[in-house]
Amino acid sequence: MLAGAAASVEDPQEADALGKQLTRFVEVFNLLERKLADPIEPAGAIYKGAIPGMLRTLDPHSAFLDPRQFESLKEMQRSTEKGFGSVVNLLPGRVIVLQTLAGSPSARAGIAPGDELVALNGRPLTQMPVEQLVAVLSESRNDRTQLMVRRPNFPRLIPMTLIPAEMASPSVSRNFFVEPGLAYVKIVNFEAATARELHGAIENMGGRSLQSLILDLRGNPGGIVEVAVQVAAFFLDARKRIVWLAGRSGPKEELTVPDGYEPYRFPLAVLIDERTTSAAELVAGALRDHGRATVVGERSYGKGLVQSVYELGAKTGLALTTAYYLTPNENPIQRSLGNCSEYQLAPCDDGRSAAELRGGIEPDQTVYPPRFSGLETVLKASNSFLEFARDYVGQQRGIGESFEPTNEMLDDFQLYLSARGIRPTVSEWSTAVAFVRANLKQEVLNLTVGVAKGDEVELRRDPVVRAAAGALRARLPQ
After folding, report:
1. Going from the N-terminus, what domains does the chain have, and what CATH number goes with each?
2. Helix (H) or strand (E) holding 124
3. Positive or negative, the Cα torsion across 321, 2, 317, 7?
4. Cβ neighbours around 418 below 10 Å, total
5. C-alpha distances in angstroms, 121 versus 94, 109, 143, 157?
6. How far apart are the C-alpha atoms of 131 and 336, rounded to whole Å?
7. 3-class DSSP state for residue 199?
8. Mean pLDDT score of the chain, rounded to an integer?
């Protein structure tokens, strides 16, 4: 949350002690200015040294935000960022376009699914590791960019120029029916428009007529707490407690469902994993404690700190831990940070069990992501599905949402693998054939219909989604 300026120190004794410490700091700074061998740069000494050093004595999440970081935070809260409007697949030295968004700079420039970006502003991408590719692509979004593009079945590289534009970044990224009456919605983070987007997605799929809903919060890093409270309120009765806020001093404060909400009452499952964090844990904890949802997946991360962002001068900011969250049943979300000095808001020994000290939200049903066989791992790591799908799509016409891989396509894929030195045994192939069909279908749909439709193929096979669907079916009237 974005807060106002920090309050001044009012206690006379505290003010006097603070004044003495500030005097010492000024003395040290003056000595550095006069005696240091090289000239000292004041802004760097303060912004990169003194302030971060002071915050490191508090907790791992309080941080000083320089002008660039503070602007990025505000961009995230606006749910927009500059970009080109394309979804890409990254491998070492490979950037392959899966989809371009309608009206985006990529679409206007003529970039198409299956195109490979081979050079960016004169820099070849072929030798770059994935981490460097991510950095180079992120940097390119700030200004006009010159690309060299390789298109399947086209004899030469195609030069293109892209100019980045403000792109809306929806936080509700996927919604579809897993099966008739059972809807699925994915929330990637909690931003200003998330509650409105979620309500729109649910209504578009049938609203109160839905039989049940899977709410996927896996990998969700949190975001705006007030928005998370709105999301939880969609499924809870008025005045139900959503979360407690407990600070260093003073009584706990509770956030409840406001009057006027008419909640959805269909059965609900919430998916979480070890990357579900902060505001997302708040939602999962509230729905679980009230018995409103079955929580499926893995224990969440355990970040239950209340962080306020204070705007400072010179376009900088300060993210500061000011309290911590408890679920409606007063279970702490925050995991233990170890030594008492690392977290000043929680008592050092409060008698909690080892499980409670781990923090996070414990699922009602623990289900892990799929594990791949040796052959499946090789096929994924080699990008064989996407590479084959690029060639296949270039030779086909009229592929639609009903596409299914044929036996002839699987035979051609086996020949493709053999030419590249991947020759599974009959046993390995027969065990993996369903996996192969699904991944070929996903990549073909990615390139023809869109990434959202391709993702549906993967999600329908996801063991966590399937377990949630089974739990919801068991709650329906027989």
Report:
1. 80-168 (2.30.42.10), 172-339+353-366 (3.90.226.10), 374-461 (no CATH)
2. strand 123-124
3. negative
4. 11
5. 16, 15, 11, 14
6. 31
7. helix
8. 84
CB atoms closer than 10 angstroms to residue 314: 9
| 277/273 Cα distance (integer angstroms) | 9
Quick one: 146 exposed, middle or buried, by C-beta within 10 A (0-12, 13-18, 19+)? middle
Structure tokens at 272: 């979480």
* Residue 28, H or E segment: helix 12-35
- Burial (CB < 10 A; 0-12, 13-18, 19+), residue 92, is middle
Between 356 and 473, where is the model more confident?
A: 473
Q: Are 329 and 240 in contact (CB under 8 A)?
A: no
Cβ–Cβ contacts within 10 Å for residue 96, how many?
Answer: 21
Short-list 162, 148, 153, 217, CA closest to 189: 217
**Token duo for residue 73:** 């935070």
Longest Cα–Cα distance in the chain:
84
Determine contact, residues 136/122, Cβ cutoff 8 Å: no
10 Å Cβ neighbour count for 32?
13
Give the integer Cα–Cα distance in Å for 2 and 113.
39
Most confident of 133-142, 251-260, 402-411: 402-411
Q: Kindly state the helix (H) or strand (E) to which residue 305 belongs, with its residue range.
A: strand 305-311
pTM given for the model: 0.75
Residue 446: which residues within 8 A CB-CB, separation 6 or more?
98, 99, 113, 386, 389, 453, 454
In tens, the pLDDT along 349-375 reads 555 555 556 789 999 999 999 889 999
Integer Cα distance of 269 and 467 in angstroms: 10
Query: Residue 220 has which token pair?
Result: 């969700």
Task: Give CA–CA dist 417/275, Å, rounded.
Answer: 34
Contact 324, 345 (CB under 8 A): yes
Contact 244, 252 (CB under 8 A): yes
User: In whole angstroms, what is the distance from residue 46 CA to residue 52 CA?
Assistant: 8
Name which of 199, 164, 195 is nearest 75 in CA terms: 164
In contact, 406 and 425? CB cutoff 8 Å? no
CB of 248 within 8 A of CB of 321? no
Nearest to 159 by CA among 167, 148, 145: 148
Give residue for tokens 């391709």: 454
